[in-house]
Amino acid sequence: MERIRTSVIIPAFNEGKRLPECVSALKAQTQPFDEIIVVDNNSRDETAEVARSLGCMVVWEGAQGLSKARNAGAHASRGDIICFIDADGQMCPNWLEEALKSLKDPRISAVSGLNIFQHDNSFKEVWYNLYTLLAYSCVVLDDRIFSQTFLVGNNLAIKKDVFLSLGGFEPVIGEDYWISQKFWVRPELKGVVNLKMINQLSSRRFDERGYTRTVLGWLIDTARKTPQVKYAKLSSQGSQQA
Predict the structure, then answer these.
(1) Which of 17, 53, 176, 221 is the most buried (most CB within 10 A)?
(2) Burial 119-132 (b: 16+ CB within 10 A, else e)
(3) Confidence category of residue 147, pLDDT binned at 50, 70, 90
(4) Residue 83 falls inside a structural domain
(5) CATH number (domain holding residue 196)
(6) For the sheet containing 190-202, what is the strand order?
(7) Rounded alpha-carbon distances, angstroms, from residue 207 to 90, 118, 213
(8) 86 in any annotated domain
(9) Residue 15 falls inside a structural domain
(10) DSSP characters over 151-184
(11) What are 48-60's pLDDT values in tens digits?
(12) For position 234, what pLDDT does the model report?
């Protein structure tokens, strides 16, 4: 049987300082990726140069937006399985190993993992992870009771042909919610949540915009399908965050 190839895609907008830690965690996997793709989305810093120095494949995407960058990486990838993480995330060492275990079941087309926010302030870390507790309680219940797996955009492994058949991510806020909707209406597609696929994520968005404002803003903008380019224009540093 032909070996399954895996690609991991990192959308990046002015992420030169954060890429080394992210890529280091990817290279420390117990099951190595076949290729690491960094999508430079109009960065004004040294993102592309840093990515190349780390041995990553660099793809340029001139159309601003997180979804545009992720989709460009997916189209450029050579993997049978494509994985997504943001530049401010760090995958646990057995992330890919766990993802492949879940995808070994031929009925499973996609698997999402668990995001945990990090912060130097322990009180803020607990407070910020209340969002994780609430969000993932809903995700797990939806998965277990209704067999509707939420495709977490920055913690996802999915078969490439399935991703492309869904049309990729839409260029709107809550892009992972909207691609999940398209996934759910396809009865032949099944997903699963694997809580062992842990991604340690930066809390910077909560710090920048405030916890309540961030969560409420995401909910409102998801319902309105607000274009991601609005957020890209507001951000002077760091990756675009939906």
Answers:
(1) 176
(2) beeeebeeebbebe
(3) confident
(4) yes
(5) 3.90.550.10
(6) 57-60, 35-40, 6-12, 81-85, 155-159, 108-118, 190-202, 89-91
(7) 19, 11, 10
(8) yes
(9) yes
(10) --TTEEEEEHHHHHHTT---SBTTHHHHHHHHHH
(11) 999 999 999 999 9
(12) 42
Q: Please, what's the largest Cα pairwise distance for the chain?
A: 50
Instruction: Give the three-state DSSP class for 112.
Output: strand
pLDDT, tens digit (0-9, with 9 covering 90-100), for 180-214:
999 999 999 999 999 999 999 999 988 988 888 88
Rg (CA), the chain: 17
Beta strand segments in the chain, E = 6-12, 35-40, 57-60, 81-85, 89-91, 108-118, 155-159, 190-202
Specify which residues 201 forms β-bridges with: 89, 117
- pLDDT value, residue 230: 55
Residue 242 confidence (pLDDT): 36
CB-based contacts of 222: which residues, under 8 Å, 6+ apart?
A: 172, 173, 174, 177, 178
124's tokens: 């803020």
Q: Is residue 211 part of a domain?
A: yes
Number of domains, the chain: 1
Which of 13, 15, 57, 51 has its CA nearest to residue 34?
A: 57
Among 44, 43, 47, residue whose Cα is nearest residue 19: 47
163: containing domain: 6-230
